[in-house]
Amino acid sequence: MAEHEGLKNLYEQVIDGKFGWDRWGLLSILSDYVMNYNHDKGGMMEIGCGESTIIFSRLANKYKVWCWHIEYSKSGVENMRNTEGYFDRKYSLVYTGKSDDFFKEKVSHPLALAFIDGDHEYKQVERDFDNVWKYIVPGGYVFLHDTLPPDDSWKVPEKCGTVYKLRKDLESFSGNPGYEIFTFDKSAFNVGLTMVKKW
After folding, report:
1. Averaged pLDDT for residues 53-63
2. CA atoms of 127 and 174, how far apart (whole Å)
């Protein structure tokens, strides 16, 4: 099993800033912050795996909590399993399949943190958010990726899709929604990282 050069000491690169704020640096720092204060309340979940998986698997090990990694692409999961440095296997649980099926088949535990970066179409992201939200503990967070496409050319499925519509819905909800929301424009490949805190 070969370790990809870009994955060596990735978590440390994020923490010391070498990995770059334009990629997953901010997500890593914020997730570490969230788990520092909530690791005794619940675990973690990510829908859609990739470089973020490295960060969440490291945090799962650091705080000794379970992290579900949900990925539809079998080849994507196998690539991660066969590349040293992606999974810290002690606390990482992998589900290969659709997120909708995961929530039908698996009994989930309380979640302190969830990251949604799977299908980029509005209806699916809305379902993912609603499914995850049920398990988020008070004081827990959901992060959404691809919520601020730079221009209309990014509003296609293979880029940001229509995730931004869910961000707009959450931002415009009136009354007492039970959450607080903020979107970072400069991070996560500069296509928007939205943070939703549950009260």
Report:
1. 90
2. 20
